[in-house]
Amino acid sequence: PIDVKITEPKTDAPDTSNASVVPDTVTVVEGQEAKPFEVAKDIPEGGQVKAEGLPAGLTVNPSTGEVTGTPAKISDWGKDEEERDVEVTVSVTDKDGKEVAQDTKTVTVQRDTDGDGQPDVTDTDDDNDGATDAEEEKAGTDPKDDSSKPALTDEPSVVTDKVTVVDGQEADPFEVAKNIPEGGKVAAEGLPDGLSVDESTGEVTGTPSVSDWGKDEEERDVEVTVSVTDSDGKEVAQDTKTVTVQRDTDGDGQPDVTDTDDDNDGATDAEETEAGTDPKDANSKPEAKPGDDQGATSVDKSGVKDVKPSGEDQNTGIKVTNPDEGTKVSATDKNGKDVPAKIDDNGNVVVTPGEDVEGPITVVIEDEDLDGGKAEVEVGVKGEEPDNQGGSSDLTGGSSLPDLSSGSSNVDWKRCAPAAAGVGIPLLFLLPIGLASQMNIPGFSPLVKQVSAQIDGINRQLGAQNTALQKQLGIYNGPLAQQANQINLMLKKVSPEAGRIGGGIALAAAGALALGLVANACSPNGGSSSSSSSSK
């Protein structure tokens, strides 16, 4: 018999990579941190992404294709130039260095003359000199130079510069007239739905609404006729003003003109245009290709914004992409009080703060796709200081000093400050610790011993620095310092007696004296006699 052996010829395995460049245009503002964006997707394992020609200040992650950073200020803007298109060459290589995708992407950098975060293309006062761009152009001054502005005038006038608002988003208040005569009125005919003018001040407020957008329409100019009349009803100023309303299909606060995914369906506008689907319809999107991972849930917190203390539903600016049945969202305020939260149909996290909310609000999104299974984002509350949201301090455990709860402004801070600094806030906690040591609480004795053993060390470290700091700040008070030292002497006897009745009493006594000293010094009606005493 004849054996016949057939050997299949070897062929190189075809490249099945779906790597591609994301070519859609992205808009950033100079000097402002950019919202992270992708220049490539479906990068092969071990592959690399390069982006040549990125605006200064932006960098690409070679492993993920994500671009982050803050575009540097451009120093060579033209006199009236307000935005510049930068062409970026993007390439993707596999683990062997072979190029598997290459294309160009445009990054539009918008000018921000005054650095207020609002680009000149929408800012009505580019140089922030108090005169609008329209007024400066009319007067022949430079709207991009704060040292060049029109002479002041008290004549009634219409503010004619163009204003841009976003459909469905509360507009920043803007003026349509100024220098309104006493008893005069302002009328603004043709304002977009949802906006209204205060006839006494000329200020426009509200949330614009457009219900008849064209298929591909992304912004609409609305001409408003503004007139000013005096107290007798005589017209003293009249002109037109343009209000541009920008479309926001998914209601995320980012207008379609700059949003790379208008309907927030997970597919970019460029991908939808290429696939022939509708980028403004979340129910119309490209079919997933084999091997694509488009189901992972992610959280974008770059657009987070403050909410108002009210009972209405408010968009936090947090966006969840590809949420599923296992995605959960919850929120609590500073005091741990539950705040109603939900993810709407567009992936936006919406909360209902309530009028008594104390910020910041902590929003928690839970999903197995997220790092650690969850993402936490803080949302501020309008009207509260960012560094002290929630109001009262908790240094004293919620207690108030005598006579201070009324908000009196008669506190003698030259006595109050050194008293509090002299004894140190930690000593105020000795009172409850000392009293608790007299009760038979299992496991408490070791805590008393530990606290007692550390008291001397704490006071030795703080003592010299505390006095020097008080003198440097000009709040040092000799008699009060002597009283504080007497309390500290009591504490030196505590450590050897820790855990015994005497030790507990000493702790309680020291805490009580410290609290009394601070209360006496800080009370508007107390401490007059001790302030006049002399040290010995």
From TrEMBL:
It is found in: Secreted. Keywords: Calcium, Secreted, Signal. Residues 198-210 have a biased composition (Polar residues). This is Putative Ig domain-containing protein. Its main location: secreted. Residues 390-409 have a biased composition (Low complexity). Residues 1-13, 93-102, 137-148, 277-292, 302-311, 334-345 have a biased composition (Basic and acidic residues). One of its GO terms (molecular function) is calcium ion binding. Residues 1-20, 43-355, 381-410 are annotated as: Disordered. It comes from Corynebacterium tuberculostearicum. Residues 122-136, 258-275 have a biased composition (Acidic residues). GO terms for cellular component: membrane. The keyword Secreted applies. The keyword DNA-binding does not apply. GO terms for biological process: carbohydrate metabolic process.
